[in-house]
TrEMBL record:
Molecular function terms from GO: rRNA (guanine-N7-)-methyltransferase activity
Matches recorded under HAMAP family: 16SrRNA_methyltr_G
Record-given protein name: Ribosomal RNA small subunit methyltransferase G
InterPro entries: rRNA_ssu_MeTfrase_G, SAM-dependent_MTases_sf
Pfam families in the cross-refs: GidB (PF02527)
Origin: domain of life: Eukaryota
Keyword NAD in record: no
Length: 205
């Protein structure tokens, strides 16, 4: 279905599956998760299900929501859920800007995660409105996101969060590592965020 540029099975396992699994240890550490502890997680801009589907398989006790705006990708995600028999996954077709104002989803998740979606300022506006107070916003970034993270600090504060941890993780990227940026939701996101569809990416906070 042409969802990723990677075509070979071995390369998919290394660059996408193992890369997604590398995010698990920092989440467990920062959330102080015990084994088999249930949490609710939303994967924002799930695409081909990376990392959401992979985490749902690895952690069957987690309740995972895959948020994706394109119908083609949602059809694929639903197909995978059916074929694998996963019972802990829900697929939602929609935009983060809309879901962030929906009472069913706003500040309802323990963890919101995004991989290869947008820069940190934009991701914060997509993800933090979905996270409950005390929960985590997790961004899987490149090998050196220092400047991007610094530029996003003000936006993260405006949206109710603070940077908790920036940790390198092993990866099969060209640099041999990625960086997981973890933010804690400290207080409620102001009602005006997220702004209307398209605005966060055009005019980052």
């Amino acid at each position: 279905m042409n969802l990723t540029a990677t075509k070979e099975a071995d390369e998919v396992m290394e660059r996408h599956i193992e890369d997604s699994l590398a995010i698990l240890p920092p989440i467990r550490t920062c959330y102080n998760l015990q084994s088999n502890e249930q949490i609710s997680l939303i994967d924002v801009g799930s695409g081909a299900g990376l990392p959401g589907l992979v985490l749902a398989i690895a952690c069957p006790e987690w309740r995972v929501t895959l948020l994706e705006s394109l119908n083609k990708r949602c059809v694929f995600l639903e197909h995978v859920v059916t074929v694998t028999g996963l019972t802990n996954v829900k697929v939602i077709r929609g935009r983060a800007e809309s879901c962030g104002h929906d009472v069913m989803y706003r500040e309802k998740f323990d963890v919101a995660i995004a991989r290869a979606v947008a820069e940190m300022r934009v991701l914060a506006e997509y993800c933090l409105p979905l996270v409950r107070i005390g929960g985590l916003f997790v961004a899987a970034k490149g090998h050196d996101p220092k400047e991007e993270v610094e530029n996003a600090e003000n936006a993260i504060r405006m949206l109710g969060g603070s940077i908790l941890q920036i940790s390198p993780v092993d990866s099969h990227s060209p640099y041999g590592q990625r960086t997981t940026v973890i933010c804690r939701k400290d207080h409620s996101t102001p009602q005006k965020y997220p702004r209307e569809a398209g605005t966060p990416s055009k005019l980052p906070l």
